[in-house]
Structures are given as structure tokens and as C-alpha cells.
Amino acid sequence: MWCFQLPPLALLVVLGLQAAALGEMDEAATSANDRILRGVDLDGRLHEFAASADCRGVAVVFLATQCPISNGSLPELARLAANYKHRGVEFYGVISDPAVSRADAVRHRDEYRISFPVLFDASANLRRKLKPTHTPQALVLAPSGELLYSGRIDDRYPSVGRKRDAASSHELDDALKAVVSGRKIAVPRTQPVGCVLEEPPAAAVHGSVTFNRDIAPLMLTACAECHRPGEAGPFSLLTYDDACRHAKQIADVTERRVMPPWHPADGFGRFRDERRLKDDELALFRQWVADGKPEGDPQDRPAQPKVVTRWRLGKPDLVLKMKEPFVLSADGPDVHQHFVLPSGLKTNRLVAGVEFRPGNPRIVHHASFYIDTSGAARKLDERDQLPGYGSFSGPGFENYGSLRSWLPGMTPRRLPRGMGAPLPAHSDLVLEIHYQRSGKVESDQSSVGLFFAESSARQLVMELQVMNKDLSIPAGEPRHYHRAAYTVPVDVTLYDAAPHMHLLGREMKATARQPDGVVKPLVWIKDWDFNWQGQYAFVDAIRLPKGTRIDVEAWYDNSAGNALNPHSPPQTVSWGEQTREEMGLCHFHFTCDNPDDLATIRSDYRAYVSQQQEAYRHRRQGEGAPLR
Description:
It is built from 12 helices and 30 strands. By secondary structure, the protein is α+β, with helices and mostly antiparallel strands. α4 (102-112) links the parallel β4 (89-95) and β5 (118-120). The longest helix is centred in the first third of the chain and has 28 residues, at 8-35.
């Protein structure tokens, strides 16, 4: 047997080559291992992506427990997960939020009955590797780990604060169809719409802008009325931790003036309870996030607002409540349901104040109150099998009058002493509620508290609507102009303005031109949002002399570029109460100085409404549409 000994240098070279080879093998193994994505679900089970041999693709959707768009998408995600379960697609939800505990995530999964595995990304491994920016955000991976699609689930939400009744494009579904059929995904990237994924707060306590000194006062005055436990906001914004958890989202939606919701144009009329943030206040939010969200000195923090659990205006003189709960399913378009609440009054009364209590603030978006003396609403209710009737915007009958609407965050107020809106004996209060679905089955049973004026009150607060029912919006027209006008035959005093349009509405402007040529601004909505239509009370009542013409100008977008257009392709749209039809009017509450003037304007206004009805009939007959 031959044997020899290598020189020391040669031995080192061989050993070095062996070490290098082993290092390359380790590096290759590590690289391959990095490509294998996996996570532990809420029940402690480990899931390794694309582990089965017949896997064609992996769908991963980043979710958030407090994001309304994420929660609203869960029924559609459940449908997709079930549809592709046996077609070679693995489907996962991921919660990657350091502020959410595993117990919170489990409660959320059980509450919304999520049927697919939800991975708890406590260490943010999946978030770092897949790099999502929003919730919900969908990603589709090949079995090799290659990213095939990233973006939104569908176009149900064109933007934050804007929502379609139904999606017209289904990007995640289309991507999964392509994967299971072996085709290339036609649209591999879309912009996700939802809540911004936040980073943990910086350790800094001080900065040019701090939460306690600069941000908390703004949030407590502009946000906390709705964003607190038991109210309409989808999450609370009372504490530093609350703010950090949603900081980027707050900066984004305030910068775009989606929140706080306030649509009247700045400087065009002055209104009570204005929630507008000023430009320098918006800059504070941006700077705070840029500085790393420092908390600041605890002594700078303002006191928490007191939670009011009783009626704000005191004990109501009359409480009217829905006679049974209304159940809302998890998914589908928004609902406008009307509930007939018999007043039970034996005598005529004047209402000086209205306070609304939503039974379920999570789904009650806003409410309106109408008065029916004809019994028409009861007949509509009898024909509907569900509690209440209809699903359209408007009462469905010629109402006797309406009381103030309600929006989340609105402060209830009494009319000045000696004034009240008439509520006739034996009349019904018709409560219209705009419901928004939350992503799970919900129910509501709301109440209305009425406060009567003192027995000596004599001044009636009445309502007029300035409208033009001879409306036809051509298909494809991006900015159709429409005008309505009413000339007051007596001196009047206006107390508020409530513009109303549907999904094609883009802008509305109301002014009052006096006989001397002076034009007074009333209200101007430059960016109309059907989901945030309000009733705006003037800081100072507006006096209009006899002969003043109230002008209401409206602009509509009936083009395919309007993401909320209910018709695809666009169709010519005319006046009607259904949401797919259109309206353009402005409500005003007013008083007259004496009973004779009130009788005059009521007679004149009845003739005006009759003319509008005749114009509506001619328009519908000309279109060959059935009259209602």
C-alpha cells in the first residue's frame, strides 16, 4: 500500500476547498430555506406554504382586526377560499400587528366566523418578506415562492371612504382563475385600498411635535366623538397607543380630508359643529409621524372626555323605538330601511328637539326623520316582509315635513324658546336608517327621543325643498349641469341647509339672491359624497326678504369614469327615489314672522310642489317609464 504525506500548504488548500464547498452548501440550503414561507395559525398549527405536491398557488391576504374595509371584505374572502379549496390553491389570512394580541385575534376570527386559516405573524416574518402596505392586501404566490399578484381584492372600495354597492372587477378572483388554469395573470399589480400598515412607535419621548401636547387635543375634539368605545368609529382614538396603532392612516385620511367628515366648502357659510381641520393642524399629524410618533410629557395631555350614557338633552317627552330588531346580513350593498313609529299623540304638538340613539352604532351610518299623516308609510310597511320597508333614499311618500337628520358625532340641539316643528295628532314618525354592513351578521333596534316645545310656543318651524324634477342626465356626460329655484313670497328666516343627491352627484351650491341683487351664500358641497350627506345648521339664522330667489345648482358625473356609477355601461338617468336614479334638491327649515305669512308661503309652496310633480310625470311619460 502506497502512502504519502501532503505538504502543510497543500493540506491547507484542500481543507480550504472543503470548507468553501461546505459553506456554499450551507448558503444554498439557507437560501432555499428562506424561500420557504410558513407561519403558525391562531390554533397553534404550523403551515408551510406550497407543501403539498398538487399545490398550484398560495393566496395570502393581510388582515386587520379594526379596519372596516378589511372586515367588510371577509365574506368575499370566505367565498374565494371555499371556491378554490379543492382546486390547488392554499388560502391564508395574516394578522401582523404588534398591537394585537393572539387572544384578540382569536376573538376577531370567531366573531367574524373566518373559515380559512389565519396566521398570527407575531415576529413580522411574513410582513418583512412579502412587504404589504395595507390591510386588506392580497398576494398570490407560485409554489416556488414567486410573487404573481399583489393588490386589492376587488374594486368594491374605489378609495377610502367611497364604496360601491357591488364590485365591478374582481382582481383576486381573476388572478386565482389564471393560476389554476396555468395562464399568466393579466393584471399582476393593483393599488390596495384599506388601512395603512403601521410601524411600531419610536422610543423618543420628545420631538418638535408630540402626542400629548399637539396631537391629543386635536383627536379629542375632532375624532373622539365617534372614535371611542360604543360609538360609530371602527376603532377608538382616546389614548397614545390608539393613535400609534393608526398613525399613518390618520395622517393619510386627514390630509385627503376624508376624515373628519365635513363637506361644506370653507368660507361659504358658517355652520355649527364644524369638524374641519385647518392646514396647520394637518401639518402637525404629518410631522408627528415623521418624528417617530413621540409621546411627550404626560403633563401636557388633556383630560379624557366624559362618556355620556344618558339622553344628552335630558329626559325626552316621548321615546319612539323600532318595534323589533332589524337584522342585517354580513355582505351586500348598503341598505336604506324605513321604520314606521306611531306617535300615539292625541293632540297636535310642537317638537323643539330630536335626539337619536342608534341601537348598533357599528352599522347605523345616518338617520333621517319624516312625518306621515296619510298612512301611506304604514301601507308600504305592510307590503314588505321585513321589519320596515324599502331600500331607497327617501320616504316613498309626500311627507308632511321632516325633522333634523342625524349623523355620527352630531350634537343634538333644541330650537330657541317659543319655536317648534309641528307633529300632528295621530301622525307617524318615519325613521329612515342608512345601514352599512360590517362583514358579519348584525342587528339594530334604534330609538328616537322627542322634546316638545313649551305650551306657549307659537312659531312654527317648517320645511321647504328647492328642487327641479325635470331632470335627465345623459349617458357618458362627465359634468352635467342642473338648476332649481324657488322665490319666497314672504319674509323668511332659514336655520339650516341639507343638500341631497345620489351616486352621480358631484357638486351642489345653494345661494339666495335678494331683490336688491345681494347674493348670500347658503351651502356649497364641492366634493359630494352620498355616504356623508348632512344637515348643516347655520351659526346665525339667515334672514331673506320677500322676493328672494333661492338657487340650487348641481353637477353630475354620469361617465364610466365615475367609480360609483350604478350603471355599467352608463345609462341616461332621470329623477327618482331609487339609488340607481338621481335627485338634486336642498332642504331648508324656516320660520315666518306671523301666521298670515306662513299661510301664504304654505299655499305658494304647495303650488310649487304640484308643478314639480307635473314636470316629473311628463318626464317619466316621455321616457315610457311607469309612474309611481
